[in-house]
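hiii, so i know i said id send this last week but things got crazy w the move. better late than never?? heres the sequnce for the chain we talked about at the cafe, plus the structure i predicted for it. fair warning i was half asleep when i ran it
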Amino acid sequence: MSKTIVVYYSVQGHVKKIAEKIAELKGADLFAIEAKQPYTEADLDYMNEGSRATQEFNNPELRDIELVSTEVPGWADYDTVILCYPIWWGIAAWGTNSFVKAVDWNGKKVLPIAISHSSPAGESGYLLEDDANGGEWAEAVRLYQDATDDEIQSVL
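okay and structure toks below
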């Protein structure tokens, strides 16, 4: 029997809202990727060259975000993973990559879903697949952060 989990990285709550709706529509479990040092509004001020996110963007060596946990209860039991994440500068927010690098994707079908107000999914899915150690990755799709149930259902 197929078992699905929605894994999401949400910094401002937009991705969480969509991930919860996907889990509800699919009857799937949920797992939140959480940074040990959460981002503040000031950290996310993309117009400020000194902000945390901007510094991390400009210095890729800073993007290895320490996470609260990468241990997903029952991970081996899931064969389908819906991975939801925000887009930052055209790629997945860094915490997403930290999670992807840390877990075993072998035997998993993965649907990457980028959540954004304005940016397309771009190459985010391919870049995440490159960071993964296996899995069967679908092409990434993008949903607006205020997507309707019908819009969400259309990508699942």
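btw Strands lie at 4-9, 29-33, 80-88, 91-92, 109-116, 136-137, 141-144. thought thatd interest u
miss u guys!!
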